[in-house]
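Methods — Computational structure assignment.
A single polypeptide chain was analysed. Its primary sequence is given first, followed by the predicted tertiary structure written as structure tokens.
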Amino acid sequence: MKPTSFDLQSVLRRCAFPVGSRILAGLAVGALGALVLVPVSEGAAANATAETAPGDGSSAAAAEELTPAAAALERMKTLEGSWEGTTGRGKPATLVVRVVAGGTAVMEEYSEGAGTMGMMTLYHLDGEDLMLTHYCISNNQPRMRADLAKSEDGALYFEFFDSTNLQDPMAGHMRRARIQIVDENTLSNAWTYRQGGEDVFTEAIEWQRAGVSR
């Protein structure tokens, strides 16, 4: 027996389902190619929708769970704003932090006042790692990777990974950094400079959010 040809829209119209009702029709093709319409009650349809719709339970929570690197970057974003500090040489310094690139990176601009050469650092993810790229006045750009396993005290420790425009590894460049968020208005960081294969100095500064008294 050949299956009878039909117009699906006409068949559905003949069923005369009430206008505005929620009818779930299951379609099943039998062994002979017959089309079977199975009306289901509105309550059953609602239950089926509830069972198949994504909920706000464990699956959603799992989707929102952050990797350690992503969580660290989220912490860095809380630093957005202007900061004031004093260098080890007694010079006033400013730090301006911005969340950029659609929330995928944190940009930090360092300056020791008008007329001085500033430096910039970008923090971003690289897969499961948190990285920084430091644009230094030494005319090189070291990249460092956060050692998240070392951050028991809440600080972030960054170690040298590689660098652009550093043809001689003995040339001066930033080698490591430590960043600690003390509280929402207090930040400390320390940058270590290496030259000739040895660490020659570490610049440590405690920062206070601009406009907030101690």
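Note: The radius of gyration is 30 Å.
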